[in-house]
Amino acid sequence: MTILVENLDYVVDKKLNVYKNVDILIKKEYENENENITKIIIGKNLVKKENLNKNDLKIINGKNKCAMPGLTNTHTHIPMTLLRGIADDMILQNWLNEKIWPNEAKLTEEDVYYGSLLGCLEMLRFGITSFNEMYFFSEEIMNATKQIGLKGVIGFPIIDFGTPESKDLNKLLKMAENFIKKHKNEKIVKPAIAPHAPYTCSKETYIKCKEIADEYNILLHTHISETRYEVVEMENNIKMRPVEYLENIGVLDSNVIGAHLVWITKDEVKKLARHNVKVSHCPGSNMKLASGGVMPLVEMLNEGVNVSIGTDGPASNNNLDILEEMKITALLHKAHRWDPTVGDVDTVLNMVFNSEILGFENNDIVLLDINSPHLRPVNNIKSNIVYSANGNDVDTVIVNGEVLLKNKKFIFGDKFLNDVYKKIDKIIKEKFNIGEN
Amino acid sequence: MTILVENLDYVVDKKLNVYKNVDILIKKEYENENENITKIIIGKNLVKKENLNKNDLKIINGKNKCAMPGLTNTHTHIPMTLLRGIADDMILQNWLNEKIWPNEAKLTEEDVYYGSLLGCLEMLRFGITSFNEMYFFSEEIMNATKQIGLKGVIGFPIIDFGTPESKDLNKLLKMAENFIKKHKNEKIVKPAIAPHAPYTCSKETYIKCKEIADEYNILLHTHISETRYEVVEMENNIKMRPVEYLENIGVLDSNVIGAHLVWITKDEVKKLARHNVKVSHCPGSNMKLASGGVMPLVEMLNEGVNVSIGTDGPASNNNLDILEEMKITALLHKAHRWDPTVGDVDTVLNMVFNSEILGFENNDIVLLDINSPHLRPVNNIKSNIVYSANGNDVDTVIVNGEVLLKNKKFIFGDKFLNDVYKKIDKIIKEKFNIGEN
């Protein structure tokens, strides 16, 4: 059904144009099980111009609302919602060895499914309509993503010493390929291959993953240069830095999306640009884990690298709020460079209205409730979005022409939500020894 | 009326103790126009223990809620809500000269009153029950604060070259003294004297302000070492750094609250500690304006300085959300020191449950709605507050035993709110040439 959002106070479109007092039409022009083509039209008198009958339309009141495109979260591990807050304020290696890995080892497929549902609900609540994921039991994450109705690139993770899906690397690669074959023709969700990082995957593993990515024309999602430690180790061992190394073994390409890229040189930035590598910047996680370096945003943008924003997993952030992450991005780069002109409003908005980086057309609409003291007055609506708003200001989310959140309520109903919460409380009580008593 | 919050999932008290499945009693033990003594009791079976009749109580359902003390915002300029978003991403001097000062000069007493109402509403919405303010037309800010019902220290600003209240310094000092005399016996709001900064106030002005602070036993609220520029200027001119200078002229004392303190040495930290100077840390504003330095939080806490958190004005933040500022504080110090163990959860909570720094007992209660995907599961409630929550998660706010926000709605009603918004839209349209068309 075509949707008309009437009498919007503001619209910011994906080219960052600002409109006042307009309507939006969200028209499904073609639809089948796996695909739909949804068109967004912004303007006045759209019912007349498009020759429509108002009775055929689903009408949403846009008063005191600002519409914007769906937000994109380009690096996350959503089942880690289960581990939210389980360990903070720790040195990375202790955090991983003592808290994250031992607890992750206890998770079953069902646990990952429920953690994924929670992550999808959180992202939907915060206006994220597309995301780029990497976590084990990918099939369960795929199921949860489809059930909630988000656009997701679900990366099947590969680590040489194995994951909870299998300890056998060859078996894991086979499973990944099967996962990709099974889902490669879907349009609203997409499979990807996700070799974890150059320090956990061999050269042969990366090359095999790249072959799979090329064969099925999918994304290769990987961590690159998140910590100084891994860079120093690699330099000591093979006299190359991670980006140089990945170029050297022939992995860098426009179907690669790298997360973090915190400890890189200007020369590595140029390599990323030359190979059209896509980048997910995760400022909140890098700051919280005290990675030390700061991703060279200005240099990347100057070289033309396609940079987007990721929250990373909720155990190292500890939420999936891209609106919050937008502000953190702006603040971090200004502070880092002693220059308030960098990380400006338009730069940051371009990074999050960027579902195209994942291969999804951005035809989703998010309505922000601007009838709240912290979003008044509107001297500059784009500034209010980046610097004043947070995820909870999202009021309505329309993904692929379907209303999934309305008046800050999920369309799935309270029972569904409560069942998910209950199930998750049970998981953390049984698995992590944290619970009601 | 005594309030009973029943069946709370969690309570975090001001000593950071965590309770599960308890109730809270909020008892007014004494009350007159200017003062009330409100007692908070946490536990089970409180009605019986305190020998009360449930019919005499106002009952609030605490299910799916976490209670915590009221939050404190120790440095702000709330009428600058009017200027929110009017200029971002600019060099500080241009921002002030081209955007802030020319627009501030247009503001009337009535404008400041409405801007203050909006600021108080925003803080209340975000669980801030006490704040430390500095802006001209202080009487209007005082009126707005009392009208909304927050605890405020309202500083009368002094600048040698004048403020919109008067261009005559002596007249300004006289007005400040009258303001202080008028309000000095009030308990829920307090007057303060606020010499702007060492680069805008002479030695004589600071000494006079300190005399007034001492005479009336009130706070002296001032900016100190916000930018490198002012430090370098002072070192060039008088061979002293700002904290040294203020010590030298006899201003530093336990009734001084200094904001920012970004560019200071370890020796200056020791001076602050020795004189029991109170400090307001404003990380979001410092990052946004690219002040460059980072307040030495770890050194301050090691020396025993009483440090709290301020949002600064909404033109340089651009909101008054202390929950957001808590996360920014934690992230900034971890990133700055390459050490994830600093700016930990307890350190940050202590900084914001700190109304005592302003001389207000913290007997206010904030209920967070934890029935939201991003606050699930609760592996660690204090972590969820610092790292996962934002201001909009505040559900209910009880200040001085009065419920001022309930179920995320102000008790003042929609009409009051809409009238404030309308009035403010009119102000920005007329004054700043920004409006509906």
UniProtKB/TrEMBL annotation, chains A, B:
UniProt keyword list: Hydrolase, Metal-binding, Zinc
EC number: 3.5.4.28
Residue span(s) of domain Amidohydrolase-related: 67-351
First-level EC class: hydrolase
The keyword Metal-binding belongs to this UniProt entry's keyword annotation: yes
Family matches, as InterPro entries: Amidohydro-rel, Metal-dep_hydrolase_composite, Metal_Hydrolase, MTA/SAH_deaminase
Origin: domain of life: Archaea
GO molecular function: metal ion binding; S-adenosylhomocysteine deaminase activity
Bilayer-spanning residue ranges: none
SUPFAM superfamilies tied to this protein: Composite domain of metallo-dependent hydrolases (SSF51338), Metallo-dependent hydrolases (SSF51556)
Full protein name: S-adenosylhomocysteine deaminase
Taxonomic source organism: Methanothermococcus okinawensis (strain DSM 14208 / JCM 11175 / IH1)
Source species taxonomy: Archaea, Methanobacteriati, Methanobacteriota, Methanomada group, Methanococci
